[in-house]
Amino acid sequence: MPRDSRMSRMLHVLIHMDRHVKRATSEEIARMLDTNPVVVRRMMAGLRDRGFVTSEKGHGGGWELSRGLDAITLLDVYRAIGEPALFSIGPHADHPECLVEQAVDARMAQTLAEAEALLMARFETITVADLADDFERRFAAHRVRNGPGGRCASGTA
To answer: Where does the sequence pass through the membrane (predicted)?
Structure first.
């Protein structure tokens, strides 16, 4: 099962919008993420619907943050992208009448639900600003060691 990278991609975009580009078109974000602008619009729509970004069409338009990164949690972003499955493992159900499978599936479902609840609680305590601050620390340390550089594919830090 391929990994779903929508959340990390949207976190990346939000930090760039806060630190580097203030307003970005779907085409600019698509180049940064190496994807299609239609995919960007679909992902950004969830953030817009929740009030984290605004969009303006036409010349000079684009996406812009409408809240500070300290007001957006990882849980907010997770919900905005549609709450994708967190785990690629889970109950099987090929032979639901099998008592072994019932026992395995029941414990798997219970354990995964507990793990998901813990992860959601943790997501709620981490803001996008926390990630941006970590970026700033890493970038400062990188510059001390290596001088200017350390750019993303978008051409920004």
So the answer is: none
What is the DSSP code string of 46-93? HHHHTTSEEEE-STT-EEEESS-GGG-BHHHHHHHTT---S-S-----
Contact 32, 65 (CB under 8 A): no
> In this predicted model, what pLDDT tens digit does every residue of 20-79 receive, in sequence order?
888 999 999 999 999 999 999 999 999 999 999 999 998 889 999 999 999 999 999 999
- Would you state the pLDDT for residue 38? 95
Q: Is residue 25 part of a domain?
A: yes
CATH number, residue 121? 1.10.10.10
Q: What tokens does 22 get?
A: 């203030």
- Has residue 154 been placed in a domain? no
Angle at 13 between CA 88 and CA 43, to 5 degrees: 55
Task: Give the chain's domain count.
Answer: 1
CB 55 within 8 A of CB 48: yes
Global pTM reads 0.85
Q: CB of 65 within 8 A of CB of 11?
A: no
Residue 36 lies in a domain: yes
Q: 98 is in which domain, residue-wise?
A: 6-146
